[in-house]
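Protein Record: Sequence and Backbone Structure Tokens
======================================================
Tokens: labelled as protein backbone structure tokens, with as many entries as the chain has residues.
Question of interest: how does this chain fold, as expressed in backbone structure tokens?

___
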Amino acid sequence: MPGASFGFGLMSKILFVCRLPDIEVTASTSELSLGGIEACNLELARALAARGHSVALSGRPGSDEKTDSLGLVHLGFEAAVTRKFDHLVVSNIASDFDYFDVCGAAPVYWMHNPLRFEKALRKNYVLPLVRHRPRAVFPSHDLEARTAPYRFLSRDVIGHGIDAAFLNAACARHESSEPVRFVFASQPHRGLDRVLRLWCQGIAPSLPHAELHLLGSASLSDIGDAPRVIRHGRLTKRQMIDVYQSATAMLYPGAEDETFCLAAAEAQCIGLPVITMGFGALRERVSHGVDGFLCKDENDFVTKARLIGTDHDLARLLGVAAQTRHANRSWDFVAGLWEDMLFGRAAMAHCFKRFSPTAES
């Protein structure tokens, strides 16, 4: 139910800090060309605002203030530090805790990417994490497991929501009369070279009419002379939906720094099976033989791509399961999980501390 609260029904003042470009605050996320971290912050902040909380998003220097149609306040850094908040949610850049410490809020560290200790030292993240000891939220169990050395106050795994445009879109057509179209929708350094090599060596020769569509920042030099590869560039969510609805499956082996893979979840929501080798968090996005394939090696990856490329009924059945799996993964649902994390545990801990017989001893 939209607006339902999982926790104690506490309305709160929440500040999200994330480096955002200058955006049109009245535009929906699906109309903006944003990276995954930026889109997640905007979506979650708007969802919590819609549930009645006082929510602000601070993305760039300045003292400007704008409120969008969903009630989310967009604040420049200088304006944000003059306000008081109950909760401060920082994405990745731990040094921001020091900058916004004046707002008096309980710190939450939303970790989107792996944080190796040497990188944390280089970026000056270690001392802020020690000083503020925030609660941590991870988008996958894979990332949470890789952060054991960090002594967070608490740890929660809360996956991302999916843009309403994907949830409400029609399923991919999977028509046998259309060409087989595979998609790759991640950054080039996350395995595009492997996908292109397997495409050229094993997939394209076996499927002479198949196409590989690249969404994102791949360049012509990345593609080289690979046959039947179509480069789309960086697209808005609605443009991505148009590509996905005429596609057959997503090809993505995965990457060790892939901590949720929103692109895979969005593709599944349109009814695309995902063929992966399960690197990083991809093993959590796909159930083998249900909504895609978890391949054991490169040969298996090529074999499964050929299978889906020749069996349209299989592609359709896997696609239906993929769409069903994500049908309820709205940002409002995820906002409810965040409410439970922010207020449920905090409220219970406060009550136990206040009313415990040993509280005064």
About this structure: Residues 13-161+330-355 form a domain with the Rossmann fold fold (CATH 3.40.50.2000).
